[in-house]
Amino acid sequence: MNPTSPTTDxxxxxxxxxxxxxxxxxxxxxxxxVLAVLLTITVLCAGVLxxxxxxxxxxxxxxxxxxxxDVYNTAELNRILGSSIGSxxxxxxxxxxxxxxxxxxxxxxxxxxxxxxHNTIMFIxxxxxxxxxxxxxxxxxxxxxxxxxxxxxxxLNTPDLEGNTYLWVRESGSENYVNGIWFxxxxxxAAVIPHPExxxxxxxxxxEAMAVMPELLTYIVTTAQEHHAIPKPKTSEDTGAPDxxxxxxxxxxxxxxxxxxxxxxxxAP
Length: 269
Hints:
disordered C terminus
């Protein structure tokens, strides 16, 4: 053998060079940096989405389980009225004359002319006496409603209620107010569905409002009695106003706007 001839290495082992090692380390570092950046972006986006709310879309508030000082069950009223109640407000007029207004929880909408639809579904009026002042000069008693022949008053069939009940539609310009009125012993309750043709929610025609009134008024009166929302009847010795301790808590005396009015239409009385 020639001692000066080159020796051939027949091994199949490949030994990495310094250049190959540096290249692999760089790729690993780059992957690590990319993953770290992506993770940071993901965390930041999640935080922003959790905080962000569209300015023109306030956070939705769940509807209450009961309305009108927690007297009336929301689900039951929705069933009777075919509505989606969102809230209620109380107006006090002094003494026991007061109103609870039930409002829709549906988004605001307009009619074909671009007028805003009213968001008042109905309101309930309580009167500590035998006369109901319905506005526009109408002051009804049990006797005057029973004897009326000029205003389309109808006596309702409400067998579950003690006392007489009536249905009356008051016209106000182009709008109707469908009234269901109960005369008790020294106390009066009226359930009113205003301007149904221009309402956002609930009955959408006068006929629909008239059709639901017997069941609606029965529920309103019986539930008010069960929740002691009505003062004790006056006695022959009682010539003054009902004792406030005999009724529900007195509502706020600050008037509250109760419905969205048409953008350019006159406000109904």
